[in-house]
């Protein structure tokens, strides 16, 4: 039984067709990345899953229930960290739980410690660096009770070095806490390093162009990005994407 | 320390002004009913304390009550209009029009309608107070950060949660700039409403003083009003510092 499935999703804005007959699914505890050209409709896809938009056609199912237009069914981490500036880090990371009515301060404190943010529990977001903010935002989505986490280019605003650090950190947390993750990125290497599966979208109107199952064993070390196997995969996906431009 | 470093310039300017004023009134021997010197005003301020004490107290009470009512109404109006956009489009022009009715003209009418009691006075203060507060709060609500709003919606927050946990705290800094303006307006509103007919208050003290050519007392009244305005303003600033302390704390680290 898949955690999330999309079946023949169509969406247009006016005359502009953005998604056309898009179908895919994510299993429990699976890490799936979506790559695609800019403007192909990746964020739109998240808005549909998040219930901000209604699909023109098709079904979005969580476990087995229909969630078309239903908000709060997924946990979400946007590109900007979107922490509330008047809340301390501790209050911020518990926001997702709070909205659904159950707070677990002990769990939140443990998670903050694991993220290397000990000592910042009662600091305000403006006192943190960009990477720390993204970490806090990620903990917030991990602590939210929904089983699927959707991340929309969470690291694209970070510099290369912080980004690498964040990817390793993300993997270590995820390997320990196994949740389903849907991850949007522009970065092929990032997708390869993190995912079980990569879904390549075509340019507008977006359809699933190719799906790759990534065979690298877990837990993954950062050194795999230098192996020849990794490079071959990178070429393969790169060619798939280049074919569209 | 920073307050001292920033404050010494205006304070010394005021002291200099008073010195010039004192020197000029000595030099040109200006009669005190025309323009009393600062020292004469100061003496009257001390000697007259038992006379004006209860006037002052009454004005303070009136201001606080009026300001509180104006604030509550201002915030309530802002929330209603924010949550009901159609109502906002209908009433917003009316609100602006209401500010164009001169209070000096309206006030005597209010006395005709509601008598000399406390009600018309509170209405005057509320009228001058609620507008800056309502407009500031509505602007604050409207400017809520789009990214944060987006996150809250994706996270499944209800309309009420979005308001309580996002829009309201987001609007607080804007709301406080409205409160600061209203705090000083409310003192003026109180004095004006007392002119219309009251048994006590700084406004009454002032009218009595000017009709008996006690110019020194008129100046005492002027300085009392200024002091009141300043104190109310400072109080709001303190409240603001305490309420939006996340702002100063966050900025400390970055700047
Ligand atoms: N609310 C909207 N109304 C009209 N058009 C929209 C709306 N939202 C998105 N679009 C259009 O849909 C298309 C897909 O946008 P979307 O943001 O989903 O792309 P994306 O794949 O996330 O791009 P990027 O990789 O640059 O983030 C764009 O052409 C955009 O202009
Ligand atoms: Mg996008």
UniProtKB/TrEMBL annotation, chain A:
Domain of life: Bacteria
Cross-referenced SMART domains: AAA
Pfam family, one: ABC_tran
PROSITE patterns referenced in this protein's UniProt entry, alphabetically: ABC_TRANSPORTER_1 (PS00211), ABC_TRANSPORTER_2 (PS50893)
Keyword line: ATP-binding, Nucleotide-binding, Transport
Family matches, as InterPro entries: AAA+_ATPase, ABC_transporter-like_ATP-bd, ABC_transporter-like_CS, ABC_transporter_ATP-bind, P-loop_NTPase
Domain ABC transporter: 4-228
Any one GO MF annotation of this record: ATP binding
PANTHER family assigned: ABC TRANSPORTER ATP-BINDING PROTEIN, TAURINE IMPORT ATP-BINDING PROTEIN-RELATED
Protein name as it appears in the record: ABC-type nitrate/sulfonate/bicarbonate transport system, ATPase component
Automatic annotation (TrEMBL), chain B:
Keyword Membrane belongs to the record: yes
ABC transmembrane type-1 domain location: 56-237
Compartments it resides in: Cell membrane
CDD domains: TM_PBP2
Cellular component aspect of the GO annotation: plasma membrane
UniProt family annotation: Belongs to the binding-protein-dependent transport system permease family.
Taxonomic superkingdom: Bacteria
SUPFAM superfamilies linked: MetI-like (SSF161098)
Source organism of the structure: Sediminibacillus albus
Membrane topology: Multi-pass membrane protein
Coiled coil (residue ranges): none
PANTHER family xref list: ABC TRANSPORTER PERMEASE PROTEIN HI_0355-RELATED, ALKANE SULFONATE ABC TRANSPORTER-RELATED, MEMBRANE SUBUNIT
Spans through the membrane: 60-84, 91-116, 122-141, 170-198, 218-239
Protein name in the entry: ABC-type nitrate/sulfonate/bicarbonate transport system, permease component
Cell membrane found in the keyword field: yes
């Amino acid at each position: 039984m898949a955690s999330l499935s999309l079946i023949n999703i169509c969406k247009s804005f006016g005359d502009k067709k953005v998604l056309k007959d898009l179908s895919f699914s994510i299993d429990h505890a699976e890490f799936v990345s979506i790559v695609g050209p800019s403007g192909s409709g990746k964020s739109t896809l998240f808005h549909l899953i998040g219930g901000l938009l209604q699909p023109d056609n098709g079904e979005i199912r969580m476990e087995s229930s229909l969630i078309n237009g239903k908000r709060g069914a997924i946990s979400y981490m946007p590109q900007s960290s979107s922490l509330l500036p008047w809340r301390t880090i501790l209050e911020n990371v518990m926001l997702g739980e709070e909205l659904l009515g159950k707070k677990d301060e002990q769990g939140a404190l443990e998670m903050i410690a694991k993220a290397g943010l000990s000592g910042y529990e009662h600091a305000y977001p403006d006192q943190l660096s960009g990477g720390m903010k993204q970490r806090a935002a990620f903990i917030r989505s991990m602590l939210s009770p929904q089983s699927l986490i959707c991340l929309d280019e969470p690291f694209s605003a970070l510099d290369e070095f912080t980004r690498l650090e964040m990817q390793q950190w993300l993997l270590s947390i995820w390997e320990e806490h196994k949740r389903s993750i849907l991850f949007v990125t522009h970065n092929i290497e990032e997708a390869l390093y993190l995912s079980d599966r990569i879904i390549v979208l075509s340019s507008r109107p977006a359809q699933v162009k190719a799906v790759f199952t990534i065979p690298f064993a877990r837990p993954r070390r950062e050194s795999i990005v230098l192996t020849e196997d990794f490079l071959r995969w990178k070429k393969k996906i790169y060619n798939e994407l280049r074919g569209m431009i | 320390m920073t307050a001292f470093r920033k404050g010494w310039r205006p304070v010394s300017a005021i002291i200099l002004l008073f010195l010039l004023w004192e020197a000029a009134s000595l030099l040109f021997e200006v009669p005190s009913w025309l323009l009393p010197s600062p020292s004469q005003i100061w003496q009257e301020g001390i000697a007259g304390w038992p006379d004006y004490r209860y006037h002052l107290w009454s004005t303070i009470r009136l201001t606080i009550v009026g300001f509180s009512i104006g604030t509550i109404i201002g915030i309530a109006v802002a929330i209603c209009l924010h949550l009901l956009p159609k109502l906002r489009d209908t009433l917003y022009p009316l609100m602006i029009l209401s500010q164009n009715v001169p209070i000096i003209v309206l006030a005597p009418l209010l006395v005709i309608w509601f008598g000399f009691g406390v009600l018309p006075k509170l209405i005057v203060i509320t009228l001058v107070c609620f507008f800056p507060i309502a407009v500031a709060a509505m602007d604050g609500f409207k400017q809520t950060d789009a990214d944060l709003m987006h996150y809250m919606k994706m996270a499944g927050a209800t309309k009420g949660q979005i308001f309580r946990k996002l829009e309201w705290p987001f609007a607080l800094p804007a709301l406080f700039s409205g409160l600061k303006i209203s705090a000083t307006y409310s003192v003026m509103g109180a004095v004006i409403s007392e002119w219309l007919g009251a048994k006590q208050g700084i406004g009454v003290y002032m009218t009595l003083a000017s009709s008996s050519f006690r110019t020194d007392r008129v100046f005492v009244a002027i300085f009392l009003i200024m002091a009141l305005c300043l104190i109310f303003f400072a109080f709001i600033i303190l409240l603001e510092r305490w309420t939006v302390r996340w702002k100063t704390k966050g900025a400390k680290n970055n700047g």
